[in-house]
Every structure is written in structure tokens, then in C-alpha cells.
Fold:
Amino acid sequence: MRIGRSILSVVAGALTGIILSLCTDALLRASGWMPAGLPATDKILALATVYRTIYGVMGAYVAAWLAPYRPMLHALVLGAIGFFVSILGTVVTWNKGPQYGQHWYPITLIVLAIPTAWVGAKLFEMSRHSTDESIR
Structure:
């Protein structure tokens, strides 16, 4: 039962980040900020880095919140998955053309995957600790 809840917490955290990112991408395309089919500018990639980082923190928070035990571990598992998926995406798209953006962007996603997960779990732990303190 705990293994199922552990898997569910990590999947829910991943889905949080993925769904929020895809919805934001769609809104940016619909508004004309991120034209479909055109190479992304550094400005758009910087914006995407910011919101994907925020959503990554939120996803890690969700994973930690739903974890049946050891919330930091669950969030870091999510971060490790993001790390390896980002590496895979970087390798697959590295020299495939300008439509994949500048090389700094996927490298940034790799570098931020684990710290983002740690921050999300730390925020959860701090909120849980403050809740515990207010109960006393």
C-alpha cells in the first residue's frame, strides 16, 4: 500500500508540473507571445525557465505533501526523474535545428531539476513544521 502511495505521490507531482507547463505554453502561444513553429527567443526561453522552475517547485511540493513517509525523498525522486528526462531531451535535440532553441535552455533545465525538487520539499517541510508549531 505504501509503495502505491509513493508512486502516486511522485506521479501527481510530475503531472502538476507538466500540466501547468503545457497550459502556460498554450496560453503563451494563443496570446502570440510564443509563436508556434518559430524558434524561441532567449526572452521566451528565460520566461519558460522561470515558470517551469516555479511549477517544478510546486510539483515537488505536491509529491512531498502526498508522500506516505520521507517527503524529501519523494520530491528528490521526482527531481532525479526530471534530471534524467532533461538529459535525454537535451541529447535527442542537441543539434536538430533552431526550432529547439538555444543550447543554454536544456542545460539550465538539467541543472535546476534537483535544486527545484529540494526547494519544493523544503517548503513543504517548513509549512508542516509551522503548522505543527501553531497546534501547540
User: Anything to note?
Assistant: The chain has a mean pLDDT of 92. The chain has one domain: 2-131.
